[in-house]
C-alpha cells in the first residue's frame, strides 16, 4: 500500500522569500503524485500533478514540483511567496488503479509574514 | 467553474441521531467521493461512487452509508451519530479516466456530535 509523509507540520516564511515544502512517498511502482492546497474555510484545490515524463512539473499560482525517484520525493517549490499563499498544503500519491486509491499526507500549514 | 456544494457549513447533532450530509455537483461528473479530515490524519476516504446507483467502501466506512440516486447528488449518512464522528467532512467529484485524478472539493461540513 502507498503512503505519504509530509515531515513539516507548520512552516513560516516571509513574503517574497522562497518556499519548499517536502513530501516523501512510499509506493512499489511509479506513482501518480499531486499537490493540493486548502485555503481557510475552503475545500482543496489541485495545484499540480505528475503522471509521467518530465520530472519538473509546473502548476497554478506559480508553483512547481520535482519528482525524484531516487529519493521518493515530490517537493513543492515557489520562488517568491505571496501573502495569499498562506494555506494548508497536501501532498497525495495515487495508485494507478483508480482515483479511490489516492492517499493524502497529513498536510503542511504555511504562514506568511509581512 | 466546477461547483461542488455541501448543504451545511456547520452542523451540531446529538449522539444517536441520524445525520444526512448532502453534496451536489454541477459539472456532470461521474465520480464522487466522501472524505473526512482530521488534524494530524489528513484526508481519509469514507465512500466513493463511480456511477449512479454504484457505491463502494473506502478506507473507513464503518458507521457510515451513502446514497446516490442521481448523478449530481451524493449523500453521506451517519445512521447513529457518535462523538468519534466529530470531524470535517469533504465531498469531491471528478471525471472518469485520467481526468478523475483532479478532484473538485466542496467547502466542507464541520460536524460536531455532542
Oligomeric category: heterodimer
SS field, number of helical segments of chain B = 0
Low-confidence stretches of chain A: none
Beta-strand residue percentage of chain A:
over 45%
What does the average pLDDT of chain A come to? 92
Q: Level of helix content of chain A?
A: under 10%
- Radius of gyration of chain B over all CA atoms, rounded: 13 Å
Structural class of chain A: mainly beta
Low-confidence stretches of chain B: none
Q: Over the alpha carbons, how many angstroms does the gyration radius of chain A reach? A: 13 Å
Run of helices and strands of chain B: EEEEEEEEEEEE
SSE order of chain A: EEEEEEEEEEEE
- For the secondary structure, the number of strands of chain A is 12
Using the alpha-carbon principal axes, give the shape of chain B.
globular
Give the amount of beta strand of chain B, in percent: over 45%
Q: How far apart are the termini of chain B? A: 36 Å
Biggest interface and residues each: A-B, 22 and 26 residues
Amino acid at each position: 500500500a502507498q503512503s505519504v509523509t509530509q515531515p513539516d507540520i507548520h512552516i513560516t516564511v516571509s513574503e517574497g522569500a522562497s518556499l519548499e515544502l517536502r513530501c516523501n512517498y512510499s509506493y512499489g511502482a511509479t506513482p501518480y503524485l499531486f499537490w493540493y492546497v486548502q485555503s481557510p474555510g475552503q475545500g482543496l484545490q489541485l495545484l499540480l500533478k505528475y503522471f509521467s515524463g518530465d520530472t519538473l512539473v509546473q502548476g497554478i499560482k506559480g508553483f512547481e514540483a520535482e519528482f525524484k525517484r531516487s529519493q521518493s520525493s515530490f517537493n513543492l517549490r515557489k520562488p517568491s511567496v505571496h501573502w495569499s499563499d498562506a494555506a494548508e498544503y497536501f501532498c497525495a500519491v495515487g495508485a494507478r488503479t483508480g482515483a479511490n486509491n489516492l492517499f493524502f499526507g497529513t498536510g503542511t500549514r504555511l504562514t506568511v509574514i509581512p | 467553474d466546477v461547483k461542488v456544494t455541501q448543504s451545511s457549513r456547520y452542523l451540531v447533532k446529538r449522539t444517536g441521531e441520524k445525520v444526512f450530509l448532502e453534496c451536489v455537483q454541477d459539472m456532470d461528473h461521474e465520480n464522487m467521493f466522501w472524505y473526512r479530515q482530521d488534524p494530524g490524519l489528513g484526508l481519509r476516504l469514507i465512500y466513493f461512487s463511480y456511477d449512479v446507483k454504484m457505491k463502494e467502501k473506502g478506507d473507513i466506512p464503518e458507521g457510515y452509508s451513502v446514497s446516490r440516486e442521481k448523478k449530481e447528488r451524493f449523500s453521506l449518512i451517519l445512521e447513529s451519530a457518535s462523538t468519534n464522528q466529530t470531524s470535517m467532512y469533504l465531498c469531491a467529484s471528478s471525471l472518469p479516466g485520467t481526468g478523475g485524478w483532479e478532484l473538485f472539493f466542496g467547502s466542507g461540513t464541520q460536524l460536531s456530535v455532542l
